[in-house]
Design a protein that fits this description.
368 residues, mainly beta, Methylamine Dehydrogenase, Chain H, 10-stranded mixed β-sheet, 1 helix, 31 strands, globular
Length: 368
Protein backbone atom coordinates (compact mmCIF):
# COMPACT_ATOMS: atom_id res chain seq x y z
CA UNK A 1 0.00 0.00 0.00
CA UNK A 2 1.50 3.28 -1.05
CA UNK A 3 3.17 5.47 1.54
CA UNK A 4 1.28 8.65 0.85
CA UNK A 5 2.88 11.33 3.03
CA UNK A 6 4.78 13.82 1.38
CA UNK A 7 21.51 -0.14 -12.15
CA UNK A 8 22.55 -2.91 -11.51
CA UNK A 9 24.80 -2.64 -8.51
CA UNK A 10 25.53 0.05 -5.98
CA UNK A 11 27.38 0.25 -2.72
CA UNK A 12 25.05 1.47 -0.01
CA UNK A 13 26.42 4.77 1.18
CA UNK A 14 25.93 5.30 4.84
CA UNK A 15 24.11 8.53 5.21
CA UNK A 16 23.82 7.10 8.28
CA UNK A 17 24.09 7.81 11.38
CA UNK A 18 24.73 5.55 14.24
CA UNK A 19 22.47 6.13 17.11
CA UNK A 20 22.96 5.31 20.69
CA UNK A 21 19.49 4.67 22.05
CA UNK A 22 18.62 6.28 25.34
CA UNK A 23 15.31 6.19 27.15
CA UNK A 24 12.95 9.14 27.05
CA UNK A 25 10.14 7.34 28.79
CA UNK A 26 9.35 3.74 29.71
CA UNK A 27 8.03 3.19 26.21
CA UNK A 28 10.02 5.39 23.82
CA UNK A 29 13.65 5.70 22.81
CA UNK A 30 15.25 8.34 20.61
CA UNK A 31 18.54 8.27 18.76
CA UNK A 32 21.50 10.62 18.74
CA UNK A 33 23.88 9.95 15.92
CA UNK A 34 27.26 10.41 14.28
CA UNK A 35 28.57 9.42 10.85
CA UNK A 36 29.96 5.92 10.29
CA UNK A 37 31.98 4.13 7.62
CA UNK A 38 30.11 2.85 4.52
CA UNK A 39 32.13 -0.37 4.45
CA UNK A 40 29.87 -2.30 6.84
CA UNK A 41 27.05 -3.04 4.37
CA UNK A 42 26.89 -3.28 0.58
CA UNK A 43 23.72 -3.31 -1.49
CA UNK A 44 22.87 -4.21 -5.08
CA UNK A 45 19.67 -3.71 -7.04
CA UNK A 46 18.40 -5.72 -10.00
CA UNK A 47 15.76 -4.49 -12.42
CA UNK A 48 12.68 -6.69 -12.52
CA UNK A 49 12.04 -8.60 -15.78
CA UNK A 50 10.67 -6.78 -18.80
CA UNK A 51 6.90 -6.64 -18.79
CA UNK A 52 6.67 -6.59 -14.98
CA UNK A 53 6.54 -3.70 -12.52
CA UNK A 54 6.02 -2.50 -8.97
CA UNK A 55 7.57 -5.37 -6.96
CA UNK A 56 6.21 -6.09 -3.48
CA UNK A 57 6.64 -9.05 -1.15
CA UNK A 58 9.64 -11.38 -1.27
CA UNK A 59 10.18 -14.90 0.04
CA UNK A 60 12.66 -17.75 -0.52
CA UNK A 61 12.33 -21.45 -1.18
CA UNK A 62 14.42 -24.44 -0.16
CA UNK A 63 16.50 -24.18 -3.33
CA UNK A 64 17.74 -20.72 -2.35
CA UNK A 65 15.82 -18.81 -5.00
CA UNK A 66 14.03 -15.55 -4.21
CA UNK A 67 10.38 -15.25 -5.21
CA UNK A 68 8.98 -11.77 -5.75
CA UNK A 69 5.38 -10.62 -6.08
CA UNK A 70 4.99 -8.39 -9.15
CA UNK A 71 1.46 -6.99 -8.92
CA UNK A 72 1.94 -4.23 -11.49
CA UNK A 73 -0.11 -1.84 -9.37
CA UNK A 74 0.09 0.04 -6.08
CA UNK A 75 -3.15 -0.49 -4.10
CA UNK A 76 -4.87 2.49 -2.53
CA UNK A 77 -6.37 0.41 -0.96
CA UNK A 78 -7.37 -1.49 -4.13
CA UNK A 79 -6.08 -1.45 -7.70
CA UNK A 80 -8.31 0.08 -10.34
CA UNK A 81 -7.93 -1.03 -13.04
CA UNK A 82 -6.64 -4.42 -11.97
CA UNK A 83 -3.80 -5.66 -14.21
CA UNK A 84 -2.87 -9.33 -14.39
CA UNK A 85 -0.47 -10.09 -11.54
CA UNK A 86 2.83 -11.92 -11.92
CA UNK A 87 5.40 -13.67 -9.73
CA UNK A 88 9.12 -13.56 -10.51
CA UNK A 89 11.84 -16.01 -9.47
CA UNK A 90 15.41 -14.73 -8.99
CA UNK A 91 18.54 -16.87 -8.66
CA UNK A 92 21.19 -15.24 -6.41
CA UNK A 93 23.84 -17.70 -7.58
CA UNK A 94 24.08 -16.07 -10.99
CA UNK A 95 22.18 -12.82 -10.34
CA UNK A 96 19.50 -13.61 -12.89
CA UNK A 97 15.75 -13.94 -13.23
CA UNK A 98 14.92 -17.53 -14.11
CA UNK A 99 11.13 -17.48 -14.36
CA UNK A 100 8.10 -15.21 -14.46
CA UNK A 101 4.70 -16.75 -13.69
CA UNK A 102 1.55 -15.10 -14.98
CA UNK A 103 -1.31 -15.48 -12.54
CA UNK A 104 -4.59 -16.66 -14.06
CA UNK A 105 -6.64 -13.71 -15.30
CA UNK A 106 -9.31 -13.93 -12.57
CA UNK A 107 -6.77 -13.99 -9.72
CA UNK A 108 -5.83 -10.27 -9.79
CA UNK A 109 -2.59 -9.69 -7.82
CA UNK A 110 -0.47 -11.28 -5.14
CA UNK A 111 1.34 -8.90 -2.79
CA UNK A 112 2.80 -11.28 -0.19
CA UNK A 113 3.88 -14.93 -0.46
CA UNK A 114 5.10 -17.81 1.73
CA UNK A 115 6.22 -21.39 1.12
CA UNK A 116 4.73 -24.37 2.93
CA UNK A 117 6.70 -27.44 4.07
CA UNK A 118 5.87 -29.21 0.78
CA UNK A 119 7.49 -26.46 -1.26
CA UNK A 120 4.25 -24.91 -2.54
CA UNK A 121 3.90 -21.14 -2.56
CA UNK A 122 0.79 -19.49 -1.08
CA UNK A 123 -0.42 -15.92 -1.54
CA UNK A 124 -3.46 -13.85 -0.52
CA UNK A 125 -5.27 -12.17 -3.40
CA UNK A 126 -7.06 -9.14 -1.93
CA UNK A 127 -8.68 -7.92 -5.15
CA UNK A 128 -10.24 -11.32 -5.89
CA UNK A 129 -10.93 -11.98 -2.18
CA UNK A 130 -9.19 -15.33 -2.21
CA UNK A 131 -6.17 -17.37 -1.14
CA UNK A 132 -4.03 -18.73 -3.94
CA UNK A 133 -1.48 -21.53 -4.26
CA UNK A 134 1.05 -22.54 -6.86
CA UNK A 135 1.87 -26.27 -6.70
CA UNK A 136 5.52 -26.64 -7.63
CA UNK A 137 5.26 -30.35 -8.49
CA UNK A 138 2.20 -30.19 -10.73
CA UNK A 139 2.90 -26.63 -11.95
CA UNK A 140 -0.70 -25.64 -11.36
CA UNK A 141 -2.49 -22.73 -9.74
CA UNK A 142 -5.54 -23.01 -7.50
CA UNK A 143 -7.45 -20.53 -5.37
CA UNK A 144 -10.12 -20.56 -2.67
CA UNK A 145 -12.56 -17.73 -2.00
CA UNK A 146 -12.58 -16.23 1.51
CA UNK A 147 -16.07 -16.64 3.08
CA UNK A 148 -16.49 -12.95 4.01
CA UNK A 149 -17.13 -10.78 0.97
CA UNK A 150 -14.55 -8.07 0.25
CA UNK A 151 -12.41 -9.21 3.17
CA UNK A 152 -9.16 -8.02 1.59
CA UNK A 153 -6.87 -10.94 2.53
CA UNK A 154 -3.48 -9.26 2.81
CA UNK A 155 -0.38 -10.64 4.55
CA UNK A 156 0.11 -14.30 5.49
CA UNK A 157 2.09 -16.74 7.64
CA UNK A 158 2.05 -20.55 7.71
CA UNK A 159 2.05 -22.47 10.99
CA UNK A 160 3.80 -25.74 11.83
CA UNK A 161 0.76 -27.78 10.80
CA UNK A 162 0.66 -26.19 7.36
CA UNK A 163 -2.39 -23.99 8.10
CA UNK A 164 -2.38 -20.68 6.22
CA UNK A 165 -3.04 -17.63 8.44
CA UNK A 166 -3.82 -14.24 6.93
CA UNK A 167 -5.05 -10.77 7.79
CA UNK A 168 -8.37 -9.46 6.44
CA UNK A 169 -7.50 -5.81 5.98
CA UNK A 170 -10.94 -4.63 4.87
CA UNK A 171 -13.17 -6.47 7.37
CA UNK A 172 -11.24 -6.31 10.65
CA UNK A 173 -10.58 -10.01 11.00
CA UNK A 174 -7.82 -12.53 10.76
CA UNK A 175 -8.46 -15.81 9.03
CA UNK A 176 -7.03 -19.27 8.47
CA UNK A 177 -7.30 -21.85 5.72
CA UNK A 178 -6.57 -25.52 6.33
CA UNK A 179 -5.35 -27.10 3.07
CA UNK A 180 -6.15 -30.60 4.35
CA UNK A 181 -9.78 -29.98 5.28
CA UNK A 182 -10.27 -27.11 2.78
CA UNK A 183 -11.94 -25.16 5.58
CA UNK A 184 -11.70 -21.47 6.46
CA UNK A 185 -11.93 -19.98 9.96
CA UNK A 186 -12.35 -16.23 10.52
CA UNK A 187 -11.87 -14.38 13.81
CA UNK A 188 -12.98 -10.74 14.26
CA UNK A 189 -10.85 -8.37 16.27
CA UNK A 190 -12.37 -6.89 19.45
CA UNK A 191 -11.39 -3.42 18.22
CA UNK A 192 -13.65 -1.98 15.55
CA UNK A 193 -12.18 -0.77 12.24
CA UNK A 194 -8.81 -2.28 13.15
CA UNK A 195 -7.60 -2.93 9.57
CA UNK A 196 -5.23 -5.87 10.28
CA UNK A 197 -2.14 -5.72 8.08
CA UNK A 198 1.01 -7.74 8.88
CA UNK A 199 1.06 -11.17 10.54
CA UNK A 200 3.68 -13.55 11.97
CA UNK A 201 3.71 -16.73 14.08
CA UNK A 202 5.97 -17.38 17.07
CA UNK A 203 7.63 -20.66 18.03
CA UNK A 204 4.71 -21.55 20.32
CA UNK A 205 2.14 -21.23 17.55
CA UNK A 206 0.71 -17.88 18.65
CA UNK A 207 -0.28 -15.57 15.79
CA UNK A 208 0.71 -11.90 16.10
CA UNK A 209 -0.58 -9.15 13.83
CA UNK A 210 -0.73 -5.38 13.47
CA UNK A 211 -3.91 -3.32 13.58
CA UNK A 212 -3.00 -0.65 11.06
CA UNK A 213 -5.64 2.03 11.65
CA UNK A 214 -4.07 4.94 13.59
CA UNK A 215 -7.32 5.36 15.52
CA UNK A 216 -6.78 1.83 16.87
CA UNK A 217 -2.99 1.22 16.63
CA UNK A 218 -2.87 -2.11 18.46
CA UNK A 219 -0.90 -5.34 18.33
CA UNK A 220 -3.12 -8.40 18.21
CA UNK A 221 -2.36 -11.92 19.37
CA UNK A 222 -4.42 -14.98 18.58
CA UNK A 223 -3.11 -17.60 20.97
CA UNK A 224 -2.64 -21.24 20.14
CA UNK A 225 -5.42 -21.89 22.69
CA UNK A 226 -7.81 -19.79 20.59
CA UNK A 227 -8.04 -16.49 22.48
CA UNK A 228 -7.70 -13.14 20.71
CA UNK A 229 -5.85 -10.53 22.78
CA UNK A 230 -4.94 -6.92 21.99
CA UNK A 231 -2.06 -4.81 23.30
CA UNK A 232 -1.69 -1.04 23.21
CA UNK A 233 1.36 0.61 21.72
CA UNK A 234 0.73 4.01 23.30
CA UNK A 235 -1.79 5.42 25.71
CA UNK A 236 -2.41 8.46 23.51
CA UNK A 237 -3.55 8.95 19.91
CA UNK A 238 -1.12 9.78 17.09
CA UNK A 239 -2.51 10.02 13.57
CA UNK A 240 0.84 8.90 12.16
CA UNK A 241 1.05 5.71 14.24
CA UNK A 242 0.09 3.03 11.72
CA UNK A 243 1.60 -0.32 12.81
CA UNK A 244 2.55 -2.04 9.60
CA UNK A 245 4.54 -5.26 9.20
CA UNK A 246 5.56 -7.55 12.05
CA UNK A 247 8.12 -10.23 12.92
CA UNK A 248 9.38 -12.27 15.87
CA UNK A 249 12.99 -12.41 17.04
CA UNK A 250 14.89 -15.45 18.26
CA UNK A 251 14.09 -14.59 21.87
CA UNK A 252 10.37 -14.79 21.10
CA UNK A 253 9.81 -11.02 21.31
CA UNK A 254 7.68 -9.19 18.77
CA UNK A 255 8.90 -6.37 16.51
CA UNK A 256 6.93 -4.23 14.08
CA UNK A 257 7.32 -1.21 11.81
CA UNK A 258 5.24 1.85 12.70
CA UNK A 259 4.48 3.52 9.41
CA UNK A 260 4.38 7.30 9.37
CA UNK A 261 5.90 7.90 12.82
CA UNK A 262 9.23 6.61 11.50
CA UNK A 263 9.94 4.16 14.29
CA UNK A 264 10.19 0.46 14.94
CA UNK A 265 8.95 -1.11 18.17
CA UNK A 266 9.34 -4.19 20.34
CA UNK A 267 7.03 -6.03 22.71
CA UNK A 268 8.77 -7.98 25.45
CA UNK A 269 6.32 -10.85 25.60
CA UNK A 270 7.23 -11.75 29.19
CA UNK A 271 6.08 -8.27 30.31
CA UNK A 272 3.01 -7.99 28.08
CA UNK A 273 -0.44 -7.40 29.57
CA UNK A 274 -3.52 -7.27 27.30
CA UNK A 275 -5.15 -3.85 27.23
CA UNK A 276 -1.93 -2.08 28.25
CA UNK A 277 1.37 -1.14 26.63
CA UNK A 278 3.42 -2.91 29.28
CA UNK A 279 6.54 -4.34 27.67
CA UNK A 280 6.40 -2.02 24.62
CA UNK A 281 9.35 0.16 23.61
CA UNK A 282 9.45 2.29 20.48
CA UNK A 283 12.76 3.19 18.83
CA UNK A 284 13.23 6.24 16.60
CA UNK A 285 15.85 5.81 13.91
CA UNK A 286 17.87 8.50 12.08
CA UNK A 287 16.17 10.07 9.05
CA UNK A 288 18.94 11.72 7.02
CA UNK A 289 16.81 12.65 3.99
CA UNK A 290 14.16 14.60 5.87
CA UNK A 291 11.75 13.89 3.00
CA UNK A 292 9.02 12.17 4.98
CA UNK A 293 9.00 8.83 6.71
CA UNK A 294 7.24 5.51 6.53
CA UNK A 295 8.70 2.49 8.35
CA UNK A 296 7.62 -0.37 6.11
CA UNK A 297 9.36 -3.76 5.92
CA UNK A 298 10.88 -5.55 8.93
CA UNK A 299 12.75 -8.81 9.57
CA UNK A 300 15.38 -10.35 11.85
CA UNK A 301 18.66 -12.07 11.11
CA UNK A 302 20.41 -14.83 13.05
CA UNK A 303 23.08 -12.43 14.32
CA UNK A 304 20.82 -10.55 16.71
CA UNK A 305 19.71 -7.67 14.49
CA UNK A 306 16.31 -6.43 13.41
CA UNK A 307 16.28 -4.96 9.88
CA UNK A 308 13.83 -2.42 8.48
CA UNK A 309 13.34 -0.06 5.59
CA UNK A 310 11.68 3.32 5.17
CA UNK A 311 9.93 3.88 1.86
CA UNK A 312 9.86 7.69 1.97
CA UNK A 313 13.33 8.22 3.39
CA UNK A 314 14.73 5.67 0.93
CA UNK A 315 16.81 3.94 3.58
CA UNK A 316 17.27 0.56 5.21
CA UNK A 317 19.07 -0.31 8.42
CA UNK A 318 19.40 -2.50 11.46
CA UNK A 319 19.27 -2.34 15.25
CA UNK A 320 20.16 -4.89 17.96
CA UNK A 321 17.24 -7.04 19.11
CA UNK A 322 18.54 -6.52 22.65
CA UNK A 323 16.95 -3.06 22.45
CA UNK A 324 20.23 -1.33 23.34
CA UNK A 325 23.03 -0.17 21.11
CA UNK A 326 23.10 1.77 17.88
CA UNK A 327 21.05 2.11 14.73
CA UNK A 328 22.95 1.82 11.47
CA UNK A 329 21.09 3.16 8.46
CA UNK A 330 22.05 3.16 4.78
CA UNK A 331 20.77 4.63 1.55
CA UNK A 332 18.87 2.16 -0.58
CA UNK A 333 20.47 1.84 -4.06
CA UNK A 334 17.91 4.20 -5.59
CA UNK A 335 17.33 6.34 -2.51
CA UNK A 336 13.94 7.84 -1.78
CA UNK A 337 12.86 7.61 -5.43
CA UNK A 338 13.15 3.82 -5.23
CA UNK A 339 10.57 3.50 -2.44
CA UNK A 340 11.98 0.49 -0.48
CA UNK A 341 8.79 -0.95 0.89
CA UNK A 342 6.98 -4.02 2.22
CA UNK A 343 9.18 -6.66 0.62
CA UNK A 344 11.96 -6.79 3.22
CA UNK A 345 13.00 -10.36 4.08
CA UNK A 346 16.14 -11.89 5.64
CA UNK A 347 17.18 -15.19 4.06
CA UNK A 348 19.01 -18.08 5.82
CA UNK A 349 22.37 -16.61 4.75
CA UNK A 350 21.49 -13.32 6.48
CA UNK A 351 21.18 -11.49 3.18
CA UNK A 352 18.52 -8.79 3.40
CA UNK A 353 16.20 -8.60 0.38
CA UNK A 354 13.76 -5.78 -0.25
CA UNK A 355 11.76 -4.30 -3.08
CA UNK A 356 12.44 -0.89 -4.56
CA UNK A 357 8.86 -0.56 -5.68
CA UNK A 358 8.96 2.62 -7.76
CA UNK A 359 12.41 1.88 -9.22
CA UNK A 360 11.09 -1.53 -10.37
CA UNK A 361 14.00 -3.35 -8.74
CA UNK A 362 14.80 -6.10 -6.29
CA UNK A 363 17.57 -5.11 -3.86
CA UNK A 364 19.81 -7.17 -1.60
CA UNK A 365 22.05 -5.97 1.24
CA UNK A 366 24.92 -7.91 2.73
CA UNK A 367 26.51 -7.12 6.07
CA UNK A 368 30.23 -7.77 6.38
Amino acid sequence: MRSKHPIFSAVASVMLFVSVAFMLSPMQALASYAAVSPAAVTAKAYSVPNGTSLPWGTTYNGNGKIWVALPGCDPDPTCNPTPAGKIGVFNPKNDSWVKVFNLPSDYAQAFFMAFDKNGNVWFPLPMSNSIGRYNIASKTFKRWTVPTSNAGPWDLAIDGSGVIWFTEHFTNKIGSFNPTTQQFTEIPTPAQNSQPYGITIDAHGNKWFTENNSAVALIGEYTKAGTLLEYKIRNSYDSNLTPHLITVDHNGNIWWSEGFVGEIARLLVANAQPGTNDGVTEYAYPQPCGCGTHASGIGVDSRGNVWFDDSLEGIFGFFPVSGTGVFKVFNAPDGSSGHPHDGLMVDPQNRVWFDEEFANKLAVATKG
